[in-house]
Amino acid sequence: MKKVALVIHSLDVLFAPEGVKGGANILNLALLSALANHPMVELTLITLVGQNRQVAGVAHYFYFDKSIYTDKAYVLDQISAFLAENLHDSVLFSDVIAPFGQVLLQSHSIAHRRAMEPWWIRPLTSIFSKKRHQAQLAAMGDVANRQFFTVSQVIKEDYVRHFGLDANRVHVAYPGVSMPESSEPAPSPQSIEHTAKPFTFGMVNTSSLNKGGWLFLLSLAWLKFSGQRFSVVMVHPKIAKDLFTKGLIIALGLQSSITILPFQKEMATFYAEIDALVLPSLNEAFGLVVTEAMSHGVIPIVSSTAGAAELIQQGETGFVFERRGVPIGQLFKVFQTVLGLGYDELSSVKLQARKFAASFGWQQFTETIIQQL
């Protein structure tokens, strides 16, 4: 039996009435559940004080009283004092940079983001980058035998390259997916040119710049100009305040082609409406929405810089487009390829996508971590 302490920022966001928002929170909930119910783990949960929630399988709780993102030093002192009095075999920080314990890294470093950005944006990133945070990252590998976990190979390469972590102590643990009850993917249009229902692209847009909403829309405009028929369903919880995206849709003449949805507590309805899910992000640690869409038999079209691209078999379980260089042309070409597929080919990709998702559960994610704790 291993005594493990798991540090997550807030338990309340994992059980919010409106549903879990964001891939990091979905992953934290899955990790918490797996550790709490693992027969060889005695779990202590360390988190921000909030509602008095009890999670089945959690043996002990410790609550810190300030946000770890606004007063990290104070919170880490509290955690250190608690752990000094209550010994554990291992301490795991989930997406929280700390000078001790094991760390699950779920996001790119600022150094990586700067390297990926256009030259004219980098001075702004430099101004707003958190130098203290960067120093903490640089010192992460100084503790002997410390283990790190990343949600993709691209995240591993980021931290090994920019902060000198020992690659042998960085383990890739790909997130899993929970399969829906429905066992069959949605039927494909029998003819893209003649069916009453056009091929439908979908996207979850929480940031038009980083998530690539602008790229998605511009590529769709090229597609429309070429005479192709299609429709779009976009989940965009912040569309009311996103004047850039609203203006771009109007400027490109895409209003009649796009349906915009608010935050979806249950995404199954969204997946049932679309044939392909597009993830055009520039910086995407993994992209849980990709494997979730695949589990519903939806074809993924994924940026080459996203972690989820590492799992796509080109043309078989989905499509990857090159995000560097001239990405509009690359995404447009993939759109043309997909729209050129026949009924049997589309159905085959949807079926293979779903089969892959079914083989990719949360158990292997958590076992990869538990084996190294």
What would you note in describing this structure?
By secondary structure, the chain is α/β, with parallel strands linked by helices. It has two domains: 2-177 and 361-370, Rossmann fold; 200-358, Glycogen Phosphorylase B (Rossmann fold, 3-Layer(aba) Sandwich). It is built from 13 helices and 13 strands. Strands 3-2-1-4-5-6-7 form a seven-stranded parallel beta sheet, sandwiched between helices. It has a six-stranded parallel beta sheet with strand order 10-9-8-11-12-13. The N and C termini lie close together (12 Å).
Helix content: 25-40%
CATH superfamily of the largest domain: Glycogen Phosphorylase B
State the order of secondary-structure elements, H for helix, E for strand: EHEEHEEHHHEHEEHEHEHEHEEHHH
What name does the CATH topology of the largest domain carry? Rossmann fold
Radius of gyration: 22 Å
Distance between the termini: 12 Å
What are the main properties of this structure?
single chain; 373 residues; alpha/beta; Rossmann fold; 7-stranded parallel sheet; 6-stranded parallel sheet; 13 strands; elongated
Short description:
The chain is α/β, with parallel strands linked by helices. It has helices at 23-36, 72-85, 110-116, 122-128, 131-138, 153-163, 213-225, 243-251, 268-273, 288-295, 327-339, 343-358, 362-370, and strands at 2-7, 41-48, 58-64, 90-94, 102-105, 148-150, 170-172, 200-204, 231-235, 258-261, 276-279, 299-303, 319-321. It has 13 helices and 13 strands.
Task: Itemize the secondary structure elements and their pairings.
Blueprint: E1 2-7, H1 23-36, E2 41-48, E3 58-64, H2 72-85, E4 90-94, E5 102-105, H3 110-116, H4 122-128, H5 131-138, E6 148-150, H6 153-163, E7 170-172, E8 200-204, H7 213-225, E9 231-235, H8 243-251, E10 258-261, H9 268-273, E11 276-279, H10 288-295, E12 299-303, E13 319-321, H11 327-339, H12 343-358, H13 362-370
Parallel strand pairs: 1-2, 1-4, 2-3, 4-5, 5-6, 6-7, 8-9, 8-11, 9-10, 11-12, 12-13
